[in-house]
Amino acid sequence: MEILILIFYYAENEFIEKEKVLSLKLQSCKEDKDCINFSNKCYEGLCYYTFFCYGKNCTVSNENLKFENIKDNSNKVEKKNNEIIGEACTLESSKNGKRFTRLCNTDSDCFSNSCVNNVCIIKDNLSLTQCSNELTNNKIACCKAASEKCENNDECYYKYCKEDKTCNDLYRPDTSKETVSILGKYIIIALVIIVIIIILIVFLVKRSRKH
After folding, report:
1. How many Cβ atoms from other residues are within 10 Å of residue 34's Cβ?
2. What is the per-residue burial (b if ≥16 Cβ within 10 Å, else e) of 85-107?
3. Contacts of 150 (CB under 8 A, 6+ apart)
4. pTM of this structure
5. 90 Cβ contact list (under 8 Å, min separation 6)
6. What is the largest CA-CA distance in the chain?
7. What is the pLDDT along the chain (211 residues), one digit of tens a residue?
8. Is there a contact between 102 and 87 (Cβ–Cβ < 8 Å)?
9. Pick from 166, 169, 1: which is nearest to 72 by CA?
10. How far apart are CA 36 and CA 9, in angstroms?
C-alpha cells in the first residue's frame, strides 16, 4: 500500500508558536535576498513563507524539508544524526500497520515529541498543518498537510480531499479544459445532426409539393 509520508529534516530550524506564525505580516520584496525573516523566496512581490505545525508548535520549511513516497515499511528507515523526524501517525494506525514513520528512539527524535515502539506518534490526535501565504487576503493561513484525514477540499492545503478521506499532496488536476473540449465536440456533433435533419426536412417538403 502506497502512503505519502512527510519527511522533515531539522537543520537550523527553531520552533515558533503558531499564534506568532498567523500574526506575521507579509513582507514586500523585489528579489529573494530581500526575504530574511522566516523566508528566503520572493513571489509576486511578497516574501513567501512555509511553516509546518503540530498543535501550537511550528517550524520553518527549508531546503531540507521534503515529501517522499514510502511504499511500505518492509525496509526500516533510520534517521540521520541531528535530524528530527517530521512524519507521525496515530497510535491506532501504527498498530494496524496503516501508517508508519522512520525509526525513532526517544521522544526528542520526533517533531510530534512522542516516540512509541520506534514510531513517531501524534499526540491527542493532532493534525500536521501546512501554513503559507494566502495572497488573496494578504496573510498567513494554515490547512491540513498531505495524507492527513479530511472531510472536504477546504480542509486541505492543496484543496484536494481524496476519496479515501485524506489530503492529496498536489492540487486537483484541472479538468475544466478537458471538459470544455468534450462539450465542444458534442455541440459540433449536435449541430451537424440538426443541419442534416433540416436539409432532409426541406428535401422531403419540396418532394411532396411536386407530387
Report:
1. 13
2. bbbbbbeebbeeeebbbbbbeee
3. 144, 156, 161, 165, 166, 167
4. 0.63
5. 99, 121, 122, 125
6. 99
7. 334 444 444 444 567 889 999 998 888 999 999 998 788 889 989 999 988 888 888 887 655 554 444 445 555 667 777 777 877 777 877 777 766 788 889 998 888 888 998 888 877 777 888 899 987 778 899 999 877 888 999 999 888 898 888 888 776 655 455 445 667 778 888 888 888 888 888 777 777 766 5
8. yes
9. 1
10. 20
Distance separating alpha carbons of residues 3 and 5, to the nearest angstrom: 6
Residue for grid cell 526517544: 106
Please tell me the distance from the alpha carbon of residue 70 to that of residue 50, in angstroms, as a whole number. Answer: 23
